[in-house]
Amino acid sequence: MKRSEFLKTLGAVGAVGAVGVAAPAAVLAVGRDAGRDAARAASRTQGGCALLPSEIAGPFPLDLSANTFFLRQDIREDRVGAPLRLRMRVVDMESCEPLQDVRLNIWLCDSEGEYSGYGTEANLTYQRGYQITDADGYVEFLTIFPGFYPGRVVHVHFQVFVSSQYAAVSQFTWDHDAAVALHTAHPDLYPQGPDPMTPEDDMSFSDGYALQTATLTWAPEEGGEGIGGEYLSNLEVAVDGSTLVGVGYLERETAARMELGQNVPNPFETVTRVPFDLHVAGAVRLELWSAAGQLLQTFDLGQLPSGAHSFTLDFERMGLAAGSHIVQLKLETGGRSYCSFRRLTKR
């Protein structure tokens, strides 16, 4: 299967610079697990379930939806900078419940303030990617802490694709003192020095940014002495989840022909069952993808009649490790193709 065929329900959505990074004195040094738990707890209240402020997409949005190359967690490619593990959680603004199986795109500049895809970087793809939210609404990216460019404070662009009818577009930043401390602690990685702007001076955040400020902590490498660790950043965003089901044309067309249920159990240890209903007969194929965008297995289920069906995935037999995966169901009927997907988690 061609990668460009993957996730058509959403509108058709390397080598890393190795850098030894020491913990900055101005940023809290915490253990890896403790840091993630603390940051995760902070992120749960960060958005307060208030609707995320909408911002302009900015001059560098690039449409990621046409190329599944961007389905990946590590978006650094060859960019060098302070390593950043960015974790975002998407919740519904009304219920505050997590939104599962929505696509979140991010794009940000490199340590020198350059964006891929534009100008002299037109044919490059670094610092861009998307993920699918898990059952708790989370996605995670491996990137580098960005630099800055004239007129803008350090920031990250993102889009939450709730359905083919609705997408929330916004940006976020960090506490100014924490960002300055990071840039100052790594002069070799950020030759421009610390960001001279504050969010208050940035027109994109001049109307307030309380809901658009991510956490930033430092986690040293386990068993190390503060060398080779990474920064951890968390942000929770609330969007209008009422548009999640049955609003866009693609969702309506697919729902009229098939429905892919959540795998049971989820999370699971070794084996899980994927239920699906066909409202029309057709040729069915099930695909298993990694969260990093690798097609792991394809199961041709042949011509199936309408009705309730299920398929069992045995991860132990397939030799697949623990982690997040994406299962996609593809139905060919009436000369057209329909797709639906779910994210699942193996412990």
What's the layout of helices and strands?
Blueprint: H1 32-46, E1 83-92, E2 103-107, E3 128-132, E4 138-144, E5 156-163, E6 166-174, H2 176-185, E7 213-214, E8 217-219, E9 230-239, H3 249-255, E10 258-260, E11 271-278, E12 282-290, E13 295-304, E14 307-314, H4 315-318, E15 323-333, E16 336-346
Parallel strand pairs: 1-9, 6-7
Antiparallel strand pairs: 1-4, 2-3, 2-5, 5-6, 8-9, 10-11, 11-14, 12-13, 12-15, 15-16
Q: Whole-number radius of gyration?
A: 21 Å
Task: Output the helix-strand order.
Answer: HEEEEEEHEEEHEEEEEHEE
**Could you give the count of β-strands?**
16
What can be said about the biggest beta sheet?
5 strands, mixed
Distance between the termini: 27 Å
If strands are numbered along the chain, what order do they take across the biggest sheet?
3-2-5-6-7
Provide the CATH top-level class of the largest domain. Mainly Beta
Number of domains: 2
Q: State the helicity in percent bands.
A: 10-25%
Question: Can you tell me the CATH topology of the largest domain?
Answer: Protocatechuate 3,4-Dioxygenase, subunit A
Q: State the helix count.
A: 4
Uncertain ranges: 1-19, 23-48
Which secondary-structure class do the elements indicate? mainly beta
Strand content is: 25-35%
| Global shape | elongated
The CATH H-level homologous superfamily of the largest domain: Aromatic compound dioxygenase
Mean pLDDT: 81
CATH structural architecture of the largest domain: Sandwich
